[in-house]
Amino acid sequence: MKKEVIFGLAVALVLGLAGCAKDSGKSGKLARPISDEQLKEEIAVLYDTLTGKWNVMMQSDSLKTHQMAELLAAIPPEAMEAQQRANLQQSIHRLAVLRYDRNSVRDSDRIDAYDQAQDSIYRALRAYLPENGPTGVALVDSLNASINNLQTETIFYRGRYDQTAKELNTLLRRYKKQLPNLGKPYDTIQPAPLFQWVDKNAQPTEEEEDEEQ
Length: 213
Known about the structure:
6 helices, single chain
């Protein structure tokens, strides 16, 4: 979303409602009755949870970019040509421009381009390291191991984000006719884009058809 909605909820509220927010009951005419206040709370919990997962994911990604810059700096001058080092530095700095945000997540091509750019930089850096085994330089080996772990965590964090995004989207869809009763900002919250590719031409499920009624 272009403007993030900030909900200040107590920790107890988050813990108490997070479980029930995962299952909004039957859909459409069979959706379990829910008061406006309870719907507000469930939306707020899911939105806050989604924001938290997004922030953790972005912090991990920023750390990965920072450590790639550190790894480049740690490679001895004699091991890399000055122009190649300058090119890699420029590519690392450019990642900030290429990176997606919470709105552009819906653009799978942009995500692919960002991932490919990041992977290309990491492969270029690894080309200056031994194929197998440590380099013997503690800082280089530590950074390389950390970046590799962060690469693996990217899929995990995106999966966690998508899980909560789907829960929020389901809640918004099931109670969309009730949303106008909630007032700002609840009545303007839009479904969260997913990292997972979605076939826009796919036929709606029975649940989704029932919710449209």
